[in-house]
Design the sequence.
């Protein structure tokens, strides 16, 4: 790793970027979900969001065969969901048996009790190195009627990932 890459990594590691849980269901019905920290709104008109999934993650294989995905904003008080979706792997456990969820638009799993979520149609995917970026165009969204105190990277950094990044 170059000195610039190390300093860059250290700089970003000090920020408290929001964490999200992404869920998807493949065309064959297999479902998966993971905790992500590389994500951002990337267009206003049309509304678009970029969700980046590690290529080593179980969810990578599922979302690659999906037409839609859900992005969930989890609160600082929902660390159990972060632990489940960030610390376990779908290779070994069915995460959806361990949490409350319902079938959302296009059959995508939507987690119950989160601060907000949206389901988006996957309009593009991009090889970004060790992650694949999925561009989502929202088709349905919901938000709880309360202040959002989202879980940030600093609160989630202790989670041992189910897969290497």
Sequence:
């Amino acid at each position: 790793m170059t000195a610039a890459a190390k300093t860059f990594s250290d700089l970003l590691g000090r920020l408290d970027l929001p964490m999200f849980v992404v869920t998807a269901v493949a065309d064959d019905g297999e479902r998966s979900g993971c905790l992500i920290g590389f994500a951002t709104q990337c267009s206003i008109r049309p509304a678009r969001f970029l969700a980046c999934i590690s290529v080593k993650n179980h969810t990578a294989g599922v979302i690659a065969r999906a037409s839609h995905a859900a992005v969930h904003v989890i609160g600082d008080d929902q660390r159990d969901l972060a632990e489940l979706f960030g610390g376990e792997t779908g290779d070994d456990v069915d995460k959806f048996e361990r949490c409350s969820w319902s079938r959302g638009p296009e059959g995508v799993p939507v987690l119950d009790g989160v601060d907000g979520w949206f389901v988006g149609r996957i309009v593009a995917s991009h090889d970004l190195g060790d992650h694949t970026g999925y561009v989502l165009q929202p088709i349905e969204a919901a938000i709880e009627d309360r202040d959002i105190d989202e879980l940030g990277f600093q609160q989630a950094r202790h989670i041992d990932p189910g897969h290497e990044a």
